[in-house]
Amino acid sequence: MNKPIAKPTAADTADIAPETTKMNMIQAINSAMDVMLGRDPNVLVFGEDVGYFGGVFRATEGLQKKHGLNRCFDTPIAEAGLIGTAIGMAAYGMRPCVEIQFADYIYPGYDQIVSEAARLRYRSAGDFWCPMTIRTPYGGGIFGGQTHSQSPEALFTHVAGIKTVIPSTPYDAKGLLIAAIEDDDPVVIFEPKRLYNGPFDGDPDTPVTPWQKIDDNNVPVGHYTVPLGKARIAREGSEVTVLAYGTMVHVAVAAAEQVGVDAEVVDLRTLSPVDIDAISASVKKTGRCVIVHEATRTSGFGAELSALVQEACFYHLESPIERVTGWDTPYPHAFEWEYFPGQKRVGAALKRVMEA
Questions:
Q1: Are residues 57 and 193 in the same domain?
Q2: 310, 282 contact by CB (below 8 A)
Q3: Rounded CA gap, 92 and 39, in Å?
Q4: Does residue 243 share a domain with residue 103?
């Protein structure tokens, strides 16, 4: 039977990683796994090409060499198998952190995640639980086409028993991943691969600024956590609230500045459980709401957010809620930027809610 991870003591938290450095998102993710492999012998990292090769995006580079073949290793190309194996390990007290190479390939393991991992605590009446983390790159903006650009996050937020997390900065990527590994229930982290090397404002013609050149990109070298279920304000504003996550946080900030609307951009960070208190506080302050995500529109997570805002903030709304999303089509390689919700589409939505 597994046991919950020991909670940090006052001595552990008295001096939390005072040293910081510049990291891109890949390095921050790598650092999170490195820290946890060093702190907890029950933590394992495995997946397709994550060992010797260091992963397709090099997120696990150097971990096998540092921590050994038994702590970081490769698996066959069999998502259902590697997730099923991780569930068994988690039930016996390990804390596996597995990588699905692209979110587009998570579907073969979906039954294991939904039917086993998410329900283990409930079906065993609390005798067993499943402290496993699944990492996977998601989203477009890299010309990956229909099989390397999908955003399936809503499929997981629909399932009770799973936490769904999406970072938008290196700081959050590391802190959320450590929090996920330490959590006693299954967590799926979707990593916006368009942000791996630098923030992206949605304009494909603008050169990318590396994370290392972003002034406030200071990531602690050691252990720290960003609490699951807590949003952050990416941009303060008073006229309209924008709810976004992942790459769309940066697009929303750029769009607001481009059209001259004083938008408050709420970076959700965690979709399930979502921080409804932060959402409500912002929408009640501004009286308007625009929701932005890259996934297809129908039954996307934006629909849930819209319903939550309507339920919690109805009498504060000054205009209808707007959604800016991907289209209800496969991700088109030839029409990448027509599909991708860029500054133009987000800016138009901001203007509409201000003029309504």
A1: yes
A2: no
A3: 19
A4: no
Question: Is residue 24 domain-shared with residue 95, that is, in the same domain?
Answer: yes
Helices (H), the chain: 10-13, 25-39, 63-67, 79-91, 110-111, 120-123, 153-157, 170-182, 247-259, 276-286, 301-313, 336-339, 343-355
Query: How far, in Å, CA of 162 to CA of 165, rounded?
Result: 10
CA distance linking residue 192 with residue 189, whole number of Å: 10
Domain end residue (candidates: 170, 195, 220): 220
Given a contact cutoff of 8 angstroms between Cβ atoms, the answer to whether 227 and 8 are in contact is: no
Two tokens at 250?
């940066």
Checking DSSP bridges between strand 240-244 and strand 289-296, what pairing results, if any?
A: parallel
First and final C-alpha spacing in the chain = 57
Domain total in the chain:
2
Cβ atoms of 246 and 200 within 8 Å: the answer is no
Domain-terminating residue out of 220, 253, 280: 220
Q: Which residues constitute the domain of residue 345?
A: 232-355
Active site residues: 148
pLDDT (tens digit, 9 = 90+) per residue, 39-89? 999 999 999 999 999 999 999 999 999 999 999 999 999 999 999 999 999
- The average pLDDT across 344-352 equals 98
* Assigned domain for 226 exists: no
Task: Tell me: do 69 and 94 sit in the same domain.
Answer: yes
Q: Radius of gyration (Cα) for the chain, nearest Å?
A: 20
Contact status, residue 305 vs residue 256, Cβ threshold 8 Å: no
pLDDT in tens, 3-19: 444 454 444 444 554 69
β-strand pairing of 240-244 with 187-192:
unpaired
For residue 335, the domain's CATH number is 3.40.50.920
Q: What is the pLDDT of residues 179-214, one digit of tens each?
A: 999 999 999 999 999 999 999 999 999 888 999 999
